[in-house]
Amino acid sequence: MKNLLLILCLAMLTAMGSSVQAQTVSGKVTDQSDGMPLPGVSVLIKGTSTGTATDVDGNFNLNVPGEQTVLVFSFLGFETVEETVGNRSTINIALAEDAAELSEVVVTALGIERDVRALQYSITEVGGEEFTQARENNIANQLAGRVAGVNVSNVASGPAGSSRVIIRGNTSLQGGNQPLYVIDGIPMDNTNFGQAGVWGGADQGDGMTSVNPDDIETMSVLKGASAAALYGSRAANGVILITTKRGTSRRGIGVEINSNVVFERINNQTDLQTEFGSGRYQGDLITGSAVRPTTVRQGYDWGTQAWGERLGSGTAMHFDGVERPYVYAGDNWNRFYETGTAFTNSISLAGGSDTQTFRFNVTDMRSSSVVPNAGFDRLNMSIATSGKFGKKLTFDAKVLYSNERTQNRPRLSDSPGNAFQSIFALPPNVNVEWGKGDPNRLGTIPIGTDPALLSTWGFAEQEEYLMTNNPWGQNPYFSTHQLSINDTRDRIITSGSLRYDITDHLYLSGRAGMDWFTRRGTTLTPQGTGYQRNGSMSESERRVNEINLEAMLGYNREFGDFGVNAFVGANRMRREDENISANGQGFNVPFFHAINNSVIRNFGYGYSGWGINSVFGSAEVSYKNFLFLTATGRTDWFSVLDPQFNDITYPSVGGSFVFSDAMNELPSWLSFGKVRGSWARVGNSTVGPYQIQNVYSLRPAPAVDHGGNQVAMASFATAGGRSGTIPNRFLKPLLSTEIEAGFDVRFFQNRLGLDFTYYRQRSTDDQLNAQISLSSGFGSTLVNLGEMENRGIEILLTGTPIRTSDFNWDVSFNIARNRNEVISLIEGSDILNVEEPRTRTVFVQHRTGFPFGVLAGWVQKRSPDGQPVFEENGAPVQSDQMEVIGNGIPDWTGGINNSITFKGFNLSALVDFRIGGDLYSGTNVRLTQWGLHKQTLQGRAGEEPLTVSGVIQSGTATDGSPIYESFSKTLSPGEANNYWNQMGNRVQDFFIYDGSFAKLRQVTLGYNFPRSILDKTPFTNLNLSFVGRNLSILWKNVENIDPESGYSSGNGQGLDYFGMPQTRTFGFNVRATF
């Protein structure tokens, strides 16, 4: 690899010519209207590609060949100025705004650059610098709080975790709802490789962790159906376009170095009771009492119960046979969790001539997690080149490579290896470090342990050192140091394009690209694990390759006051997905963990392939550059659908009117005004390969007894196992139809701006599983049913409250509201279950007439007049049926971004907020039942009494209805113990919390060194910054956890169950160019 890098660098250096140094010209470029310096102004020697750009203070410095040299000063939105050098060494230029150039150019569907004024839909573009200041391993998380109408939720699963990005609400009831990602015109697979569920599991990450922030030039978010319509069947959830960097024409080779180091600490949100220790309540509810463990057996059996006596005196016996003072043991979180680190180093080489440019980048990122023995490393390499042959033929080619290595992904939800649950479960008088055990194999029973203890535990030396008699409640050190989920991933994304200008108005272009990756994963449950003493192991490899070929014929011309911009094209997509797996249970040679050493082995193989052929077109007609009408269309032919009706067409139509340009004279306070509207229909590829066909799958080969061992009959699986779902040849993809309207106005020389959007979207023909008569030989069939609607508004307010020659303050505020309703489900059914937490008392459901993914659970039963019903012992009575008790989707999302520059200093701060949405906290349920939640102090001996009031059932009327009488009781400590346990079992709305929050998501404070210092160094730019991410929760309404504690990026949102604690990061970044 090192030799390859050296050869590439030498080749680039050889390709660049040298230049002769002559006289030096310096100066400053300012805005003619207010005298403010203009950074980033291009200063080129006319007729060449040699030049520079102004720095943050508007200054430039350039070597020129002689006095006859003409300098060209150009900047977007300003008139271009040409200036002859003459005998001057200082040239100061004031640029005037150019009304014809004020329009912003953004990247839209199919990678086509368009003028914002012509767009009939809302689009938001985020600059690449936003991704490299305060870094996220998953760049999708950087969109949180930045884009109106985009809801970003990162899974609480560590540095290599996945992200959930939802644009304008959910469109599919059971399918994927995340957007399509496109890199340099090539669709990218962002599949989640696995996630936790009701019984546990791990977040295996997604595709966005492969993307290098240093390669990003811009990221464009196409939010509406009209914006994404040219992607047809893959556009229902919106599209995020990533354009990567390329080289620039310049003299010599430009070098950019970016070095970043950050430190990570858990953001501990717990506030648990520390008054009472390990133990349990013994005796009846009235006369019994809380007791502490006094024997090894009790210490082992009561390991995760904090219903003992008040701490502060005497001793207690613990699981390891050691008697210790019965006092608060201190903060286990700080003992167990470490300080994570991440070191990122990036170098880029870029340059080019008049006819060819190049860029080469290498970025190395190495991180360790706050969780012991866990980390994530990534190596990225990219190369880009572009150029032209003659005056008509241009080309562009890019290759992106990434290698990712993840060590010990954390187990989440109810996984027995969930170390976070184990830490939470420890009573206040237990020190987590008592469970380290063997220092050479942390979390295991040390060699030489007292046989009497081994007999009590029922385990042997070098097996798991359990701190409780529950084998599912694991030792956290064993979870992090002996269990493992490791994976590696290699990915290559290539794109290449050619364009030939047939005439000045007619062109032909073509693009080819590939997204290829292979992922290898290993999961180990070692021999001696408490819940699986024989141990098990699995290995898997997945290879995915998608190839896209595209051709386009375009025409662009003006006819007097009218203009036409049109193109037609075709696309061919082919995708292959291959999986290989091996699983082993038990190990013949003790503690030698390998598939070939396993007692029972099974192997699996899977393959799928499919494709889409497409034709598309777009036509835009403009009048005097202020009135625009655009229509697009795309037809897809699917290989996965029945050939008789496998084509679907996706049209769109829209227009925009820049009324500020149509007016003869504008008021002095109005700078720009535009209204827009559109209608479009797009799709979601909800039909998978072979779903319309009756296929057979591979079953694991049965094992037989051979000499006392279970031996697989064959190395590979056997054919069989017909699916229980009858194929439906009439299946088709989901359709989503949307109307959008909005306006964009700017005031006071663009110092204040308002962008408003309203949309209404309806999705139909969703794919649901319908039950059918068993006499058919099948249990169900897939049908196109289900209808859902989203409607909402998006508001973006931008402003520059202060602008002087030395000081500038820019602020943006965005907020969005989406309202969703499930219109219909399967005929005859109004409820569809989606997900549930381990407590199994709350369900995420789709219900007709309700929003997407409501939370349904049991509540406390109430009398006809609304009084809560209790048992005689004070325990709550559960309702007769489940009710809707919340919804995990926020009502409002938004963010506030401030950017301040003062001379060379720059400060930015991003606040991300959500208002509304509910969270069911299974974590707080368990903390209550274990006696750790602070609310369980109420009712204990010596604490505030617990009094309940309501009614009890005293009898039954002749018609069968209950008879209630008034009830009020102050509970005994035993009854209070029972009350808190039953609240967790019976009353789920008690643990529904408002999921609203506001977070200080990002802060950067940097300094750009001035030209007066840089002139004495080899650097052209040098910036030193302090950076921080997720620094503080400014406001929340849920106790003991972060509101973003979800364990899944799927459709089951609003559930918490022992996710990894959220973390805050802070560090430093150095960026230098020369």
From TrEMBL:
Signal peptide: 1-22
GO-annotated cellular components: cell outer membrane
Record organism: Cyclobacterium xiamenense
Keyword Coiled coil: no
UniProt domain TonB-dependent receptor plug: residue ranges: 116-239
Family as reported in the entry's similarity comment: Belongs to the TonB-dependent receptor family.
Domain of life: Bacteria
Principal location listed in the UniProt entry: membrane
InterPro entries: Beta-barrel_TonB_sf, CarboxyPept-like_regulatory, Plug_dom, Plug_dom_sf, TonB-dep_OMP_SusC/RagA, TonB-dep_OMP_SusC/RagA_CS, TonB-dep_rcpt-like
PROSITE patterns in the record: TONB_DEPENDENT_REC_3
Protein name: TonB-linked outer membrane protein, SusC/RagA family
Membrane topology summary: Multi-pass membrane protein
Compartment(s) where it occurs, according to its Swiss-Prot or TrEMBL record: Cell outer membrane
Record keywords, A-Z: Cell outer membrane, Membrane, Signal, Transmembrane, Transmembrane beta strand, Transport
Residues spanning the membrane: none
